[in-house]
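(Structure overview)
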Amino acid sequence: MTGGSVSADGASWCPARHDYLVPTKALADLVRGKLRAALKKRRPDLVMPEAAWGKPWVVHCTPWGDGADAVLEYLARYVYRVAITNSRIVGLDDASVTIRHQERASGHWLHTRLSGHEFMRRFLQHVLPKGLHKVRYFGLWHPSQRQQAARARLLLELDRPAALCSPTPQSEPGADRTARSSASDTMEPPRVCPSCKEGRLVEVGRLYPRQSGGP
């Protein structure tokens, strides 16, 4: 979920409030209710235990940094990783599997010996059913919004503060100051946005038909 969106006229970036994420408890109740209503509509013959709807459900919703690097660092751990890596399997024989895992409370690494049947049962819990999408794209991330996402990238790039000019090497004593003065007079004035006549126009790149996703 992005922390903002492009305005309706496409001329500016509108950042979200600092508390725009839904509280996890309210989100858990909403997901539970939506799923219960969908099952009742699509599978009226399916009888679910009433206790399943009375227990608190678990959802995860938390802010995770700004920018593409922060998003990739967070999502890469979950999107393209398997349930357990080979390096965590420290022992294997005909009857059991020994794995190492980190205790969340203390942060210490522990070793656990499981039967082959129990190991496979736990592993298969992380295998998604056939036809279930692992990653879904909404809002600016949806493939149909590539042009809007490219516009958002450009607006965010223009919104960055101007970089400080790098210091120029000191000239030798007695250098011609007239040349420096004439050079500063020939510098082009900063360009402004042709639409709102404000801000500072910076050319980041050009988008072509085969580069609709942005530079």
Q: What stands out?
A: The helical segments are 24-42, 51-54, 67-79, 116-124, 146-158, 177-185. DSSP finds six helices and five strands in the chain. The first helix runs from residue 24 to 42.
